[in-house]
């Protein structure tokens, strides 16, 4: 249980290895690839969702406008939230498989087996 | 077309069928649990199902863990009674999964082991952070548990058609409620102590398929009735509701406009925003959801499980739209509120009507009702098992092993304590549920989401992404968010000062919103930041390890 405890630090070499990896250009690229996607995307879907909630609260006339038959803007807007959620999820998985996984796998392989003092992996 | 669920006679068929199907479900899940117990040898087996599940399996289990009775019965009921506003809930509950997918699932899977606190305490002093995390895990889980168990108790009397003054198997309505709570409690403790994470996961997978099956069949029947013309269904629902077009627009339940009372209108609209924020930010801080990411072998599998979960949960919420509007059109709000004021029985009542129409007469109605009622029970059982597991894991792994024993407990001791904890938490929730029977179920769920979003989420995000974050910040974020949420709810109209409050005859209410999220979530984030900067502690080396491990999966358990 001691790798979970900063007080009893793991072998110095392990700690330094992680620090070296963190400072490497390759890892910086991985971090940039991840954050460059997830942060803007989080802001985007949150604003898009907030717009929906705010319109539901304050733009009742707009939301109540009928488009076809009894189907109004509110319903379509709501369904678009579903569509955007599915789309963002799919986009992320596509992006991660292309831009994140290969780099992460490579760095993990470079680090190699890290000494573990609590039992087998997985 | 209005039927009152389980009228006096002729319903023994439905009751017996419900009971039989339910017993079949219990028998099957118990068999799975016993089988799972034979595969459960190590702590990893018990806490994380041996990390042996596939992304698809875990995705279904997440669906089974997440789609609670509040989703199935509650949202269908809200849509049936208030129209469009019920849909707002579904959207918040679904969009929330993007937070989990983009920011939390994979990084947590890579850097944690069994509990949420594994990540929070990774580079911190163990005892304070784990104590705080255990406190918040148990608080969130118990609120959520109470909601499910109280809901189960209320439902059984309704679904089995036990009216005041009548009895079933020698039990009157009150006794039946208590008996149900005890039975649900006993079953969830059994699933968890015997089957551990493996047993619980399979129970959730089975439930997810049952729930989806039931919802798909009912949706198809509703749509068939309207020749797959959604507009006609909506029109009929709006007409039957007596609200007209307003039934299809936001504003009947949330953000209500009160003419002549501008302040009330403003508060009501802010309350809608507050609910919206809490729903979307709460999910990724729910401990029973987070520990599900440990049941798969890799971060990629964790990602796949969230993708599957988004698929199944999104589809399910789309179906509840048809169920809710179908119930409004075909059952009618009068018949629904006659059965249950909150609308929780709308879906089973709809099943009965559809059964009468499509399967032929009374017997068909009774059959479909029984099926859907049994699915509702299965739903509750799968969710409470997940919650019990999350809280007992945290009690054993965070509090016992790392706080009390300071990391010296053996795996065997830890698992033994986890099993005992499940028993204790089960017993506590049974007792609390019996006393809390009159609590508003929705309030308990909303509170759980608010605490998760205000305390857990800031701590998790800071831990994963902010180099400077430290022990003090984590402790401040968790306690600050937790207390802010509970404090504001205590002084809100859901606890006192309104006719629908927990204590309708008392009035110490001054906070105008029912949901605290709009204030307590930013407050939690602020506390985390402030707690961090006032402490000098900073461990760049451990952050390097956390960051590298969480992004690459190196050294993952």
List the helices and strands and how they pair.
The complex is a heterodimer of chains A (122) and B (557).
Chain A (H helix, E strand, L loop, with lengths): L11 H12 L1 H34 L1 H5 L1 E3 L2 E2 H39 L11
Helix pairs in contact in A: 2-4
Chain B lengths: L11 H28 L3 H6 L6 H12 L2 H14 L2 H27 L4 H5 L5 H34 L13 H53 L4 H12 L20 H21 L4 H4 L8 H32 L2 H7 L6 H59 L6 H25 L5 H25 L5 H20 L26 H17 L6 H13 L5
Helix pairs in contact in B: 1-8, 1-14, 3-8, 3-12, 4-5, 4-12, 4-14, 5-10, 5-12, 5-19, 7-8, 7-14, 7-15, 7-16, 7-17, 8-12, 8-14, 8-15, 9-12, 10-16, 10-18, 12-14, 14-15, 16-17, 16-18, 17-18
Number of helices of chain B: 19
Overall number of strands of chain B? 0
Strand order of the largest sheet of chain A: 1-2
Summarize the amount of helix of chain B as a percent range: over 70%
Q: Assign the CATH superfamily of chain B.
A: Sodium/glucose cotransporter
Unreliable spans of chain A: 1-8, 117-122
**What does the average pLDDT of chain A come to?**
86
Number of strands of chain A: 2
Strand content of chain A: under 5%
H-E string of chain B? HHHHHHHHHHHHHHHHHHH
Percentage of residues in DSSP E strands of chain B: under 5%
Specify Rg of chain B, calculated over alpha carbons.
23 Å
The helicity of chain A comes to over 70%
User: Which overall shape of chain A is indicated by the principal axes computed on the Cα atoms?
Assistant: elongated
Show the largest interface. A-B, 68 and 79 residues
CATH class identity of chain B: Mainly Alpha
| Oligomeric organization of the protein chains | heterodimer
User: Over all CA atoms, what is the radius of gyration of chain A?
Assistant: 23 Å
């Amino acid at each position: 249980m001691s790798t979970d405890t900063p007080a009893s630090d793991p072998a110095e070499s392990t700690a330094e290895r992680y620090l070296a990896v963190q400072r490497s250009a390759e890892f910086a690229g991985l971090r940039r690839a991840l954050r460059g996607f997830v942060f803007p995307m989080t802001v985007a879907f949150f604003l898009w969702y907030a717009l929906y909630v705010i319109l539901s609260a304050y733009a009742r006339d707009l939301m109540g406008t009928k488009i076809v038959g009894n189907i109004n803007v509110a319903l379509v807007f709501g369904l678009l939230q579903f569509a955007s959620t599915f789309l963002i999820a799919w986009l992320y998985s596509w992006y991660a498989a292309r831009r994140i996984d290969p780099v992460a796998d490579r760095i993990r392989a470079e680090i190699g087996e890290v000494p573990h003092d609590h039992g087998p992996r997985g | 077309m209005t039927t009152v669920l389980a009228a006096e006679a002729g319903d023994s068929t439905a009751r017996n069928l419900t009971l039989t199907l339910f017993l079949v479900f219990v028998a099957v899940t118990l068999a799975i649990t016993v089988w799972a117990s034979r595969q459960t040898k190590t702590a990893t087996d018990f806490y994380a199902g041996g990390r042996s599940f596939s992304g698809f399996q875990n995705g279904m289990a997440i669906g089974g863990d997440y789609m609670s009775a509040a989703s199935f019965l509650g949202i269908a009921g809200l849509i049936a009674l208030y129209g469009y506003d019920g849909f707002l809930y579904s959207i918040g509950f679904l969009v929330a999964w993007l937070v989990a997918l983009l920011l939390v699932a994979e990084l947590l899977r890579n850097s944690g082991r069994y509990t949420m606190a594994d990540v929070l305490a990774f580079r911190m002093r163990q005892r304070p952070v784990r104590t705080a995390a255990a406190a918040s895990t148990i608080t969130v889980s118990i609120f959520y548990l109470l909601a499910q168990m109280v809901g189960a108790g209320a439902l059984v009397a309704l679904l089995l058609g036990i009216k005041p003054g009548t009895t079933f198997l020698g039990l009157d309505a009150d006794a039946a409620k208590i008996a149900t709570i005890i039975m649900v409690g006993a079953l969830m403790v059994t699933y968890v102590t015997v089957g551990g994470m493996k047993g619980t996961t399979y129970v959730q997978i089975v439930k997810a398929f049952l729930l989806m099956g039931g919802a798909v069949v009912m949706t198809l029947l509703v749509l068939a009735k309207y020749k797959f013309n959604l507009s006609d269904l909506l029109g009929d629902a709006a007409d039957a509701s007596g609200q007209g077009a307003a039934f299809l627009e936001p504003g009947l339940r949330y953000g209500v406009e009160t003419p002549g009372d501008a302040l009330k209108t403003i508060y009501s609209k802010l309350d809608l925003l507050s609910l919206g924020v809490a729903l979307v930010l709460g999910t990724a801080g729910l401990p029973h959801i987070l520990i599900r990411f440990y049941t798969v072998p890799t971060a990629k599998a964790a990602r796949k499980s969230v993708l599957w979960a988004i698929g199944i949960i999104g589809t399910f919420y789309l179906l509840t739209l048809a169920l809710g509007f179908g119930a409004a059109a075909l059952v009618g709000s009068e018949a629904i509120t006659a059965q249950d004021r909150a609308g929780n029985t709308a879906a089973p009542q709809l099943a009965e009507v559809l059964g009468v129409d499509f399967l032929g007469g009374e017997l068909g109605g009774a059959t479909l009702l029984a099926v859907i009622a049994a699915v509702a029970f299965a739903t509750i059982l799968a969710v409470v098992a997940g919650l019990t597991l999350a809280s007992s894991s945290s009690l054993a792994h965070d509090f016992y092993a790392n706080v009390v024993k300071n990391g010296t407990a053996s795996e065997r001791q830890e698992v033994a304590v986890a099993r005992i904890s499940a028993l204790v938490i089960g017993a506590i929730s049974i007792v609390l549920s019996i006393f809390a029977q009159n609590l508003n179920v929705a309030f308990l769920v909303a509170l759980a989401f608010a605490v998760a979003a205000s305390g857990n989420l800031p701590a998790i995000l800071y831990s994963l992404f902010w180099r400077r974050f430290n022990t003090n910040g984590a402790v401040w974020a968790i306690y600050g968010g937790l207390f802010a949420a509970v404090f504001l709810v205590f002084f809100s109209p859901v606890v006192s000062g309104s006719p629908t409050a927990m204590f309708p005859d008392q009035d110490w209410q001054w906070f105008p919103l029912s949901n605290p999220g709009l204030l307590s979530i930013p407050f939690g984030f602020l506390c985390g930041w402030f707690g961090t900067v006032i402490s000098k502690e900073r461990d760049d080396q451990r952050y390097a390890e956390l960051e590298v491990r969480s992004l690459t999966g190196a050294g993952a358990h």
